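re the bet — no i am not wrong, look at it urself. input seq straight from the record:
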Amino acid sequence: MVSCNRYAQLEVTTTKKAMPSTTPENVITDQMRSFIGVASRPVSYEISRWDVARFACAIGDANPLYSDEAAARESAISGLIAPPTYLRSLLPGPSHEPFPEPFAHILDAGSRYRFLHPVRVGDVITVSRTLKDMFTKSGRLGTMLFKVREITYTNQLGQIVATQETTTITYGERSGDDAGSDFGEIG
């Protein structure tokens, strides 16, 4: 039991019943920490005019820089480019080995993008993902594992054209038959 007296001192009373610990120390293992800083297998994609035009149409963006070659050549960009969100359709390769995911459920906690150079039709973009950090928090869902990853998009000239930082949250107990499977490749 926890109570505060009028002098704002915290008083804690514990019971003799041992409660399972859900501190970060027993959720994040050394094996999990070994994944920090390790890049996934890179995957390369050739950016085609057809794919860019279809993507722009699908998102309802009629910008001529995405589909009108003559107009794009006349612009300051000097050619067809992909919409910035097109990069989200280019998935990184898998990790070299499965992440030892301790939880059963996953949530997307958002992304942050940094766009550095336009992605041009004809570019070859190589995508890889690196686990940057992980930490736990407790909430109404119990202990939650937050994984922060960076996805890097690099063109054929070796220029990083964009980065995407993604955060995923996993939580909830696994059943015996799905323990150890890795769905942590999302985002």
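see?? The chain has a mean pLDDT of 85. told u. also Strands lie at 2-4, 10-12, 43-46, 105-115, 124-139, 142-154, 160-171. so pay up
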